[in-house]
Amino acid sequence: LNLAEWMSDSLQPFGVQTYIDDTFWWRKPGGSGIYLGALNLDTQVDNTALLADLQRIKAAWGSEEFSLYDCWGTYDLSSGGFERVVQNPWYLRPAGELATGEYQLPAGLTVERVATVAELIEFERASWVGFEESEEMLDSRPPFSWHPAATVENPNMHYLVARFAGQVVAGVIVQTSVDMLGIYGLSTLPAFRRRGYASA
Question: In the chain, N or C terminus with fewer CB closer than 10 Å?
């Protein structure tokens, strides 16, 4: 649900409609391609019923390519024409006090919250480099094509950057909800990896 909230909050400024029920979160086309077409929210639905719902959503989507995030990685959707292309791990930290005194930032590094539209442009460009977009793509993509400017004002969404010697070297998006803090889009510029900056 936290992931669904992050994608809804990110897509709404693009004017993209999103929908949620007991089984799925899904969206209409538009906005950035980094946001998925649908998320399954219920592991108890049988495979046949899930596929039937997906066909309905795919028809409403109206596009040849449609992406689904099977959050638990438990369904076989190949009979519906789906191909598993990525399997990502989830990490969960239960609620509780943070350990203190055990961690220090790497020397010279600061971690800052993005507070302005200009800083969001800097964050977004660093994300593109961190996710290893091509130079041609970097030069042709306009600002806010992944992260709309309006999201800087969203009280539930926080962009954080790690800065070294004045340069943004890593970034992450934090989505807060009632009982969960989700971490998304973590990236580090290739030239600054293996220094603990993303961990910071």
Answer: N
